[in-house]
Every structure is written in structure tokens, then in C-alpha cells.
């Protein structure tokens, strides 16, 4: 079986990162608190301008990309899935660090090093922009592990999606959507699905 895995929000807890680091940044710079914890992006969570959004990520993206830890047991579970003969494809929209890196080469190298340091094995990694459904089809993905509402809704029209639970994707329900809450929960659901 070929399993597609997203990074941000699946291998990492992006939701908690944005709440923790975002609330510190917004308070220290604007004395502003969390307004919408159920939203997926920092600009919506704090109702901030594009300028403030970009400034936040300019200050925090490199640290997040290099140092924020993988979710508990992510590497362990993925290793078990590989040992059982599954093909693991990382499919991520994490493309570029800055406009000065249009090919995304710097971010690609950071991601590969982060995966290695966090002991997350994979067979292939694909950096995408936009909808991931076409990438899943081209790579014969049997099941995708995703957190983005947009991607879950799109991909689940054709293949099953394991939805990594977050406040912002609570409305993602449907025939091809399997909600999970941890990496061992994902493992158990994949065993049952097989």
C-alpha cells in the first residue's frame, strides 16, 4: 500500500505552534490575544494584516522548519508501516523559505534534514503547490494523511483520507474521511482499513 503523508499539521503540531508562538509574538508586539483558535492560519487566528502575517513567519519559519519536533510516535509508527511493506510518500506544500529562493531548494534541504533528525523514514518526498489530489493520483497513493480542510475535501472525493484532528478541520466529515487523534490511532485505523 502507498501512504501519502503531509508534514505541517500531521508530522508536526502546527496548530499548537501557531497558538503558542503566535500569542507571544502578538502580545509582545501588539498586546493582542487569540481571537479565533479554530482557524487554520495565523492571520485568521489573530485577525492580522498580511504585513504582520509575513513578519511573523519571517521571524519564526526557519526555527519552526528546523527545530519544531515531530509529533509523538510519528517516526516510530511510520517505521512500522515501512517494515510491513508499505511505501511512504511525504507530500508537502512546504515549498520555499523566501521569494529569494524561487526553486525552494533551501526549504527542501531543511525538510530532508528535519525528517532525518526526527527519524521519519520515507521512500519519496514531493513538494507541491496547490491541490494535492493530482499528486496522489500520479503517485498511486492509496490513503493520504492530511490536516488541511481544503486538501481533505478534495482528496476524499477519490481516495480515503486520514484526517489528523485539529480545531480547524472539525467540519471535515464524509464517507472517505477517517478522523484520527494520534500516530498510534493512525496506525490502528490503517491496520483495520487494510
Kindly describe this structure.
This protein has 194 residues and is α/β, with parallel strands linked by helices. It folds into two domains: 136 residues, Rossmann fold, CATH 3.40.50; 54 residues. Helix content is 45%, strand content 13%. It is built from eight helices and six strands; from the N terminus they run E-H-H-H-H-E-H-E-H-E-H-E-E-H. Strands 3-2-1-4-5-6 form a six-stranded parallel β-sheet, sandwiched between helices. Helix 4 runs parallel beside helix 8. The longest helix is centred in the N-terminal third of the chain and has 18 residues. The radius of gyration is 17 Å and the shape is globular.
List the helices and strands and how they pair.
Elements: E1 2-5, H1 14-30, H2 42-46, H3 50-67, H4 74-83, E2 87-92, H5 105-117, E3 124-127, H6 133-138, E4 143-146, H7 149-155, E5 161-164, E6 177-180, H8 183-193
Parallel strand pairs: 1-2, 1-4, 2-3, 4-5, 5-6
